[in-house]
Design brief:
- This is MmcQ/YjbR family DNA-binding protein.
- It holds the Pfam family YjbR.
- By secondary structure, the chain is an alpha+beta fold.
- The protein has a single domain, classed as Alpha-Beta Complex (Aspartate Aminotransferase, domain 1), CATH 3.90.1150.30.
- Strands 1-2-3-4-6-5 form a 6-stranded antiparallel β-sheet.
- The protein is globular and about 45 Å long.
- The two termini are 18 Å apart.
- Helix content is 30%, strand content 26%.
- The longest helix is centred in the last third of the chain and has 15 residues.
Length: 128
Amino acid sequence: MADADDVRHLALALPHVVEIDSDGFDFRVGGKGFVWSYPERRPGSPRRIRTDIAVLYVGDEAEKQALLLGEPEVFFTTPAYDGLPLVMLRLTQVSADRLTELVTDAWRMRAPDSLVGDLDDGDGHPST
């Protein structure tokens, strides 16, 4: 089971990551977001930042659909994210290893090509 502290630890272990000031967590590489707290919106209520749910960049619609259909207990989406390569991830439903894979893959897809080679070890995952 993962939490916001795990996301923060993993994201900040990746090269060239900047954390944006927010009520939850918000991480960017090369000026592009790759994982952040879910800003839940409900009609008639103010936006609520959910640090138990991460918005994760996934690259394309095919990958998004594969995650949503393959693991509906872990991933979901809302109409506000239709057409965007983003999924919501229930942090309590993933292991630390899986979270590492997901955050690293999101970073890799958003990082400029010139930075991708800066991961610390040879297997494409950050050293922790």
